Fold:
Amino acid sequence: MSGPTRERVPIDGRTYELDVRRVDADAAPDVSIAIASHEGRALTELALDSIARFARGRYEVWVADNASHAGTPEMLLGRDDCNVILNRTPAWEVAA
Structure:
């Protein structure tokens, strides 16, 4: 598993800085699970643990975190069971 890559993505006239890390996949998944997160470390970790425990078959998990603090990005990057998209753009830079 490699570290995240920094990408600058234009959306609706604004540019977002995203760190993207993709877990190596052995085969194409039958289903993709997407989780959106903001300041929800405990709940996100619980969801990921539950998926790892109960999901069967070929699946992939993507977690998109919207500029959380309090260790959420570090927790996500420390796991090897999910793909991660981290929005690193400060809110004041994208406010309308």
About this structure: The two ends are 36 Å apart (CA to CA). The chain is about 25% helix and 35% strand.
